[in-house]
Amino acid sequence: MKRFSKFLITLYLFSIILFVPKISQAQEKLHDVVYLNNGSILHGEIIEIQVNESITIISNCGDRWVVNQNDIMRIAKEPLSNEIKKDSNEYISCKTKGYYSNINIGFMLSGEMESIFPSLSLMFLNGYQFDWGLALGAGVGIDLIDETYMPLVADIRYSFKDSKLSHFVFFQGGYAMPLESPDPYDYNYSDSNPESKGGYIINPGIGLKLKLNDNNAFSFAIGYKYMQVKHEYIEYSGQKINRTSEYNRITLGIGFHF
Q1: CB 31: neighbour CB atoms within 10 A?
Q2: E-assigned strands of the chain?
Q3: Which residues share a beta bridge with 49?
Q4: How far is it, in rounded angstroms, from Cα 175 to Cα 138?
Q5: Residues 44 and 143 in one domain
Q6: What residues are paired with 142 via a beta bridge?
Q7: Which domain-ending residue is among 45, 79, 113?
Q8: In angstroms, rounded to a whole number, what is the distance separating the alpha carbons of residues 182 and 197?
Q9: Total domains, the chain
């Protein structure tokens, strides 16, 4: 009797091992997968077929691809998966995630420019990209305005979709540390030996990201930078004076994401 019971238990476990994976797979959502001759893979839903000409597929992120049938190796129905294949040239249908770095060269424009050349800004960012579009990071840079400042900022940005060309919004906020003292003749401080105390920065903006591969991209952004810095100097009477200067700049930036 015990042997018969063990046999039934063994048969039951064997049936679970044999049939449950198939049932789970049948219940998992499927989507169209198009394998191209160049090694790329497109994920989504085929919405149109032109016999002996082309197919049209909408990716899971909403991108529309029209593919010549001569470029297609095969088409399959596969379970929807968010896994990213690092060893292929696959067009990923979900947003990537992980650590990233970005170096950005910017130009700061204002209505009171004394030179035809805009002020320059250099920013290096490091952060983490979540798979649902949000990225959090921190950065350090150099701003060449009237004096030289080193901004230390927190960076928040959101990418609306992951595709070869996508758009994003960002917001930076932080503190600008002075790297040099102001020229007294630029501020009518005379020979008072002024000192810069730095101040806070806010910098929101929008941009476009051109994806080169799974790890690298170029970005183009436009934003608005508000910067408030404090100067301290001593008058002839010996009184210590604090003065606040405000900067309002339109920023144009070119970045490299890696």
Answers
A1: 18
A2: 30-36, 41-50, 54-59, 64-68, 72-79, 98-109, 119-129, 134-144, 148-159, 165-178, 195-211, 217-234, 240-257
A3: 55
A4: 12
A5: no
A6: 122
A7: 79
A8: 10
A9: 2
In DSSP terms, 31 is beta-bridged to 78
What residue numbers bound the domain in which 45 lies? 2-79
pTM of the model: 0.60
pLDDT tens-place string over residues 170-227: 999 999 999 887 766 655 555 567 777 889 999 999 999 988 876 788 999 999 999 9
CA distance 108 to 118: 6
Q: What tokens were used for 99?
A: 């650590």
Q: In what order do the strands lie in the sheet with 41-50?
A: 64-68, 54-59, 41-50, 30-36, 72-79
Give the DSSP H or E segment for 116: none
Q: Which residues contact 186 (CB under 8 A, 6 or more apart)?
A: 146
Q: Which residue has the tokens 């060449």?
A: 144
Strand partners, 166: 209
User: In angstroms, rounded to a whole number, what is the distance separating the alpha carbons of residues 162 and 132?
Assistant: 10
